[in-house]
Amino acid sequence: MAKNIGRRQEQGSRAPTLTELRKEAAGCTACSLYKNATQTVFGEGPQSARVMIIGEQPGDQEDRQGHPFVGPAGTLLNRALAAVGISRDEVYVTNIVKHFKWEPRGKRRIHKKPSALEISACRPWLDSEIAAIRPHIIVLLGATAAQSIMGRHFLVSQQRGQWISSKIAPNVLATVHPSSILRAADEKSRHEELEKFIEDLRPVAALIREKSAA
């Protein structure tokens, strides 16, 4: 099914709507991740969104609920967006990979990094989301998302919070994934990392205000 999306794009046919994409992605079997996932977790947000936020993959709660960024990392993302004056309702949130990849640890399902093959198999869905929305700004969360778009040598640690050149959108910015903040050693460290994350998003909010005033 993902191959069909790519084929339509190559042929120059009409870009499908988000509703059409979401319906088709629900049955995606382009890689083996669907076998152990509860469901496809497609992106969500308005098709008119100026900002698209791209993470790595859905987590445990996202897999169970069928919505992106609804777990603890999503809660932190919402806090950071609110802190810079961006409403979650006005952005489109999605992931590089649409199925939860995990391994068992006792009764818990622990996140496992997707492979290059799995990322490649899922890429047509992301490309189609971008084609449908045509965002002015793309925010890449974490190394997997950033390297999938910017190349494997891209280092978030060196360019976080900065505008970077890319053909994927007029304005692209990379920062950490909020899940990394949750893994900080203690409450003080988590607070400091959250503040850094918020600062990374301030240029996004400033550009939105600038575009709105123009």
Strand segment tally? 7
Task: Give the overall pLDDT as a whole number.
Answer: 93
Distance between the termini: 40 Å
Tell me the helix content.
Answer: 40-55%
- CATH top level is Alpha Beta
Radius of gyration: 17 Å
Question: How big a fraction of the residues is strand?
Answer: 5-15%
Superfamily at the CATH H level?
A: Uracil-DNA glycosylase-like domain
The CATH architecture classification is: 3-Layer(aba) Sandwich
Q: Count of helical segments?
A: 9
Instruction: Give the domain tally.
Output: 1
Major beta sheet, strand line-up? 2-1-5-7-6
Main beta sheet strand tally, sense and closure = 5 strands, mixed
Name the structural class.
alpha/beta
Helices and strands, in order, run as HHEHHEEEHEHHEEHH
- Shape assignment: globular
